[in-house]
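Bumping with the actual sequence this time:
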Amino acid sequence: MSPSPLVVEAAGGVLWRPASIGGDGVEVALVHRPAHDDWSLPKGKLDDGEHPLLGALREIEEETGFVATPGIPLGETRYLLGVRPKRVRYWACRAGSGSFAANNEVDELRWLSVAEALELMPARRDRGILERFATSVRDTRALLVVRHASAGDRDAWHGPDKERPLDERGSKQAVALAAILQAYAVGRAVAADLVRCRATLEPFTAATSVPVDPDPAVTVDSFTANPQAGVAVALALTKGPAAVLSTQRGVIEDLVAGVSEGLGRPASPDDVGPVAKGGMVVLHLADDPSGPVLVACEQLPPAG
């Protein structure tokens, strides 16, 4: 039996901004691709080894000229590209600075209301993504709960476990993670008081000058003894700008469940599941009159 064809991985998003006329509602960007003579959401194939979220942001900028801040996940589409299966993952992405210039792949961009965009788009895959966006249009910010990057074999490290450093793979993951944190405009950083947790954020802090605050309450031993204290640290990060918290495997599932419950959206640790080294859970937050609310939660794979 012949092996299954490799999946062609792609990513993109709904690029949006507040409506320029009237002050209410939003506009979304559609791009025209002359090779297909159609209007679609900005998207494209990932480069080899590229993180899907970063690939989505790159494709959006290449096709529209706008830098974007990622928001909630909007799902994916799957179909055949010839004989090969293709998967396209999408996020809601708020437009930042930039301007459109025609290129070889895209010759026109239009900012439209969601209703206008749906009318212009053909009845194909992108429509479901745009319809999903329309049901949950909110400006969000992120709290990223990151499992520390690869730090080798615990049994092979002969010093205090608190001082175990990242290995070569972990150092590469940390460098790649910095790009994701910058994409989310992270402005605050907390790490478990362990070398490997702080080191996971060091490339980000070096690039942005955002300091890392070590906090023993989110180390696994302290969290196991007093989970309420660790959850309180994370809940404090749900207020204000986007934030990151770097910690250990044994903390993440219960911590995320505790934060979800604290924001009025009860969840079980089983809803999170295991997170790979260097991977992360992203809590997408918005503000209501009563305070921060949890809009969506997703797990992202490690970068690097």
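The tokens above came from a reply further down the thread. DSSP finds eight helices and 13 strands in the chain.
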